[in-house]
Amino acid sequence: MKTTRSIVLAVTLVFAWATAGFAAHSVETCAKRIESFNYLVDYSGSMMMKYKPLGQTKMAIAKTVINRINEMVPGLDYQGGLYTFAPYNEIVAQGPWDRAAIAEGVSRLQENLEVFGRFTPMGNGIQAHDPVIKNMIPRAAVILVTDGASNRGVNPVDEVKAVYASNPNVCFHVISLADTEEGQRTIAEIAALNSCTVVADGFELFQSDAAVDKFVGDVFCQELVVIEEDVVVLRGVNFAFDSSALNDTAQGILDEAARVINQHPDMNVRLLGWTDSIGTDAYNKALSQRRANAVKAYLVDHGVNPSRIIAEGMGKSFRYDNATEEGRYMNRRVELVFSN
């Protein structure tokens, strides 16, 4: 089954974080989690202070970290940009992401500016960035690079909360260069606003290839998981209780699945729909069939020949723990099985 195995690997994101090394992920190993992103970089006086354990200013460390991430972002058609706050400036405008343009923009950031008298209105910077966020392609990420200091202007936590209220398809992630309890607390409060948030230690990203690799995977790529040799679970193609509707996250994953399936016209696909254990066997059998049918319909709408797809409702799943909400959610899924 070498052909089948190669297909499974082509549509799964199974990063071996401990052994992957510092190499950019290819389109074959990353299904896009996001469509657009911006770096929003703290450019205040506190970022110009030296972080003694590494012997460099926090701004110099931030520049290195952004460059390391930029080198590892998969070569997909993201939208991207680079902005600063304190003061707020556009360095690279939001638009088609270009690795070289981001690197050139980072090179223009200074790392040894005056410390004193340059305060940190983080909340005002987020507020100023809101018009850009509103124009980002949904499934958007704002990567906040900061030490968490905020000593002027509006509350940054309140501003992030306001952005979420008006832009439900954006997520804030944080590269933390916090070296004070106050800064750590502010970052923790921002992270607590949305479960989508990824927080990474900037000092670790500065030193660790594996940490950069993991951050890129967590922010930029969907996690698709192989359960058995020829069975692929599309993590994120999960269903609400008693529903067969595909949400935006599921649709984004299936867009990539359709692309890969169409690249391998010699392979056929079985879609196995599953439910959690709540309800009768008969009802769940029918519900699982509706879920498999929904995935098939979406793939067909996106160019996959329906003759290549068989949708099967399997009924109740016990692969994950039905005693927990998370386990029941994971059981409400569709698997792909590839065959010649």
Task: Give a short summary of the structure.
The protein has helices at residues 2-10, 58-72, 99-107, 122-134, 156-166, 181-191, 202-207, 209-220, 248-262, 281-301, 325-331; strands at residues 31-32, 36-42, 50-51, 56-57, 79-85, 89-96, 140-146, 170-176, 199-201, 221-222, 225-228, 231-238, 268-275, 309-316, 333-339.
Describe the structure.
The protein has a six-stranded mixed beta sheet with strand order 6-5-2-7-8-9, sandwiched between helices. It starts with a helix and ends with a strand. The radius of gyration is 22 Å and the shape is elongated. The protein has eleven helices and 15 strands. It has 340 residues and is an alpha/beta fold. 42% of the residues are buried.
pLDDT averaged residue by residue: 86
Number of helices, counting only DSSP H or I runs of 4 residues or more: 11
What's the helical proportion of residues? Answer: 25-40%
Total number of beta strands:
15
Task: Provide the β-strand percentage band.
Answer: 15-25%
Distance between the termini: 9 Å
Largest sheet: 6 strands, mixed
Q: SS-based structural class?
A: alpha/beta
The rounded Rg comes to 22 Å
Low-confidence stretches: 1-29
Neighbour order of strands in the largest sheet:
6-5-2-7-8-9
Order of helices and strands: HEEEEHEEHHEHEHEHHEEEHEHEHE
How would you describe the shape?
elongated
